[in-house]
């Protein structure tokens, strides 16, 4: 009898063990409730939104999306759920527009409602909603209007900006001559040219290609572009807690952005000391004059903080997007020498060898124009565009998209549409030529996005692409160290931006 009592008492949990068990049960119940609430919330939200793959609690559809090729994942989803579907990045729903009709209907036909900028945590950390790229509402409208007007006043789309681009094309050709036909990685040189055009607009002056400040800026831009194209940034945007508590390349991105902003701030202060209100020299002067005009307006958007962010936006966007397109374009021309030869024939016939190309030449060079368009179509620089957001509760194709919901427009699905482009995965200038060899416009061509949020620098970028590449082919033959047929043209990054692989090229003087 005593032995049985001893066994029962020895098997009974102590008070400490019982308390631990009770705590464990409470935690399990709390987590279960939170899980049920999250499921219920997602379920109720999904009833209003377009259909899509069922998300898991907390992580959403992250396991169903290939971070290295988001466009491919979206293509797969579109075959199941149609041209408008919803995916969850973490707990956040994102409506995806897939195909020309859906993109056009939203961004053009309903442009005002889809004109908001969706905020990724990484961009929110670097911009705080300032500047021109990631701002919203009244701030965005005022800064965009001011920027467009100022860039036009300083020649964007006019003769004066073309003079700047032509001047830089001459400098670019001379810099390439210094390679003396030896092999080189063209990344740095091709970044310098568009960056100097932007510098002449923002800071009044261009830089020498050996200037140390210039070299540092270019290096930061190149690194940031690669970082933004990495799968890690995709993960960080899904789980913002990583930005604060985990090491990673995002910290290098934040550091580079801060250093660039400090550089812009120093330049702005220098401008302020020598400012002549009646004779603005550049973009910064115009912004400072606007700040002075609105200094008594407590609601003004023209502040030093916004000046720095806006200039940094114009600076970075006007440099890296164009230089990456140039670099990718040269790789494609290196791989397709027959295309390069046809461009050079057209250059000889229309321009000759003794003057710099101009935009007037483009209308007389349909094949070259087609190649420039095909480069931008093929490389698909910004596959999902930058994130949009609806500015109000929006009814779209019998769905209700709540105000503030983020929207991604798949530009890949438009630029690589197989019904419009006969061989969308092939590099073929014929996509933009008719049967007579004349240039053929195509409404599916939207590498700069479309609608209210179309790239502010579209005109400048297209001018630079034509003049720079034409000037290079006017003065050099392109040579690869390996058989052109074996050159790899596959993207090395397919996050926010598409990055070409590294390669070596020889510029042989004609």
Present the secondary structure layout.
Layout: H1 2-11, H2 15-48, H3 70-81, E1 84-89, E2 92-98, H4 100-109, E3 116-117, H5 121-127, H6 137-153, H7 159-177, E4 183-184, H8 187-202, H9 212-228, H10 231-238, H11 241-245, H12 249-273, H13 283-293, H14 304-335, H15 337-350, H16 366-379, E5 388-389, E6 394-396, E7 399-401, E8 406-410, H17 411-415, H18 458-475, E9 476-479, E10 493-494, E11 498-499, E12 505-509
Parallel strand pairs: 2-8
Antiparallel strand pairs: 1-2, 3-5, 4-12, 5-8, 6-7, 9-12, 10-11
Helix pairs in contact: 7-8, 7-18, 8-9, 8-14, 9-12, 12-14, 14-16, 14-18
List the defining traits of the structure above.
Cytochrome P450; 8% strand; 510 residues; membrane; three-stranded antiparallel sheet; Cytochrome p450; oxidoreductase activity, acting on paired donors, with incorporation or reduction of molecular oxygen, reduced flavin or flavoprotein as one donor, and incorporation of one atom of oxygen; heme; five-stranded mixed sheet; monooxygenase; alpha+beta
Describe this structure as you would to a colleague.
This protein has a domain at 138-380 and 420-509: Cytochrome P450 (Cytochrome p450, Orthogonal Bundle), CATH 1.10.630.10. 54% of the residues lie in helices and 8% in strands. Strand 6 and strand 7 form a beta hairpin. The chain is globular. It has helices spanning 2-11, 15-48, 70-81, 100-109, 121-127, 137-153, 159-177, 187-202, 212-228, 231-238, 241-245, 249-273, 283-293, 304-335, 337-350, 366-379, 411-415, 458-475, and strands spanning 84-89, 92-98, 116-117, 183-184, 388-389, 394-396, 399-401, 406-410, 476-479, 493-494, 498-499, 505-509. The strands form 4 sheets. The protein has a 5-stranded mixed beta sheet with strand order 1-2-8-5-3. A 3-stranded antiparallel beta sheet has the order 4-12-9. It has a two-stranded antiparallel sheet with strand order 6-7. The chain is α+β, with helices and mostly antiparallel strands and 510 residues long. This is Cytochrome P450. It is an enzyme of class 1 (oxidoreductase). It is found in: Endoplasmic reticulum membrane; Microsome membrane.
């Amino acid at each position: 009898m005593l032995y049985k009592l001893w066994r029962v008492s020895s098997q009974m949990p102590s008070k400490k063990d019982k308390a631990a068990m009770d705590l464990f049960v409470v935690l399990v119940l709390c987590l279960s409730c939170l899980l049920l609430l999250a499921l219920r919330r997602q379920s109720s939200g999904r009833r209003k939104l377009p259909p899509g793959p069922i998300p898991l609690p907390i992580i959403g559809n992250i396991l169903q999306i290939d971070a290295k090729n988001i466009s491919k994942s979206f293509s797969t989803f579109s075959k199941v759920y149609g041209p408008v579907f919803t995916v969850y990045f973490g707990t956040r729903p994102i409506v995806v527009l897939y195909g020309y009709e859906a993109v056009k209907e939203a961004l053009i036909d309903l442009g005002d409602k889809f004109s908001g900028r969706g905020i990724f945590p990484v961009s929110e950390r670097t911009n705080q909603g300032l500047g021109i790229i990631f701002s919203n509402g009244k701030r965005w409208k005022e800064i965009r209007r001011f920027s467009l007007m100022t860039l036009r006043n300083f020649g964007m789309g006019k003769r004066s900006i073309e003079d700047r681009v032509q001047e830089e094309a001459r400098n670019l050709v001379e810099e390439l001559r210094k390679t003396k036909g030896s092999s080189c990685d063209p990344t740095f040189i091709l970044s310098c040219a568009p960056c100097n055009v932007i510098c002449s607009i923002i800071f009044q002056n261009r830089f020498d290609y050996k200037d140390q400040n210039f070299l540092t800026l270019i290096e930061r831009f190149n690194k940031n572009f690669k970082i933004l194209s990495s799968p890690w940034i995709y993960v960080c945007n899904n789980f913002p807690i990583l930005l604060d508590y985990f090491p990673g390349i995002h910290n290098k991105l934040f550091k580079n952005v801060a250093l660039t902003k400090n550089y812009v701030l120093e330049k702005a202060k220098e401008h302020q000391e020598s400012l002549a209100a009646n004779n603005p020299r550049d973009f910064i002067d115009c912004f400072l004059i606007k700040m002075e005009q609105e200094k008594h307006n407590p609601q003004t958007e023209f502040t030093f903080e916004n000046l720095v962010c806006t200039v940094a936006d114009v600076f970075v966007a006007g440099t890296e997007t164009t230089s990456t397109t140039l670099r990718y374009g040269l790789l494609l021309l290196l791989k397709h020498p027959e295309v390069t030869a046809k461009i050079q024939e057209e250059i000889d016939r229309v321009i000759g060898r003794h003057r710099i190309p101009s935009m007037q030449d483009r209308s007389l060079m349909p094949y070259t124009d087609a190649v420039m368009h095909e480069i931008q179509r093929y490389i698909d620089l910004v596959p999902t565009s930058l994130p949009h957001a609806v500015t109000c509760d929006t009814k779209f194709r019998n769905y209700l998209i709540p105000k503030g919901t983020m929207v991604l427009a798949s530009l890949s699905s438009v630029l690589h549409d197989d019904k419009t482009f006969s061989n969308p995965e092939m590099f073929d200038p014929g996509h933009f030529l008719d049967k007579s060899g004349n240039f053929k416009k195509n409404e599916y061509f939207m590498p700069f996005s479309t609608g209210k949020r179309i790239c502010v620098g579209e005109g400048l970028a297209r001018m630079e692409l034509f003049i720079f590449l034409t000037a290079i082919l006017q003065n050099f033959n392109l040579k690869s160290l390996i058989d052109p047929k074996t050159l790899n043209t596959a993207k090395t990054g397919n996050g926010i931006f598409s990055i070409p692989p590294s390669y070596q090229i020889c510029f042989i003087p004609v």
